[in-house]
Known about the structure:
Number of strands: 5
CATH architecture: 3-Layer(aba) Sandwich
Distance between the termini: 51 Å
CATH topology: Rossmann fold
Radius of gyration: 16 Å
Largest sheet: 5 strands, parallel
Structural class: alpha/beta
Strand content: 5-15%
Number of helices: 8
Number of domains: 1
CATH class: Alpha Beta
CATH superfamily: Glucose-6-phosphate isomerase like protein, domain 1
Amino acid sequence: MNLPLYLAEYSRLLANPEIPALLQRLEARIAAARAAGGKILLAGNGASASIASHLATDFSKQGGVRAMAFNDANLITALGNDCGYQHWIARALDFYADQEDVLILISSSGQSPNVVEAARRAKELGLYIAAFTGFARDNPLGAAADLNLWVDSHSYNIVECTHMIWLTAVVDLLIAASESNAPS
């Protein structure tokens, strides 16, 4: 591996001029959800589930918005067993989602059947859907979302780390907005 080229790939992705406006749109939508009493719901598989868990904590603790990740083993195995793995996140939405909520779905390929099915169900429930995807730009999850933050890479690690940076940036945008609105 050529480490300088590897690190340059991150620089290229993070310097994408389209991304700041998309991240600001997501921050504004989350702030509106918070103002309406809504919360953030996050889900993904594997490392994307870990990112969802980490960011749910950051959104709540630092961003001041209620958030939860669908990655509890009992929730996954019970709903996967009863409804099929492809449908477990969609079914969790039936239990936990409110119309004011923002759903963040994370999938490196944008093709994970359970995550795509969750987007389909979220549309039926009237939720705002933000997708974090990679690999092919025209993936099913991105197409189903209201906002798709796509990483132009086919490397799982690069896609996942970029998703983490972008989501952390949204938390920091929420923090900055709260600080600028604080009474002096």
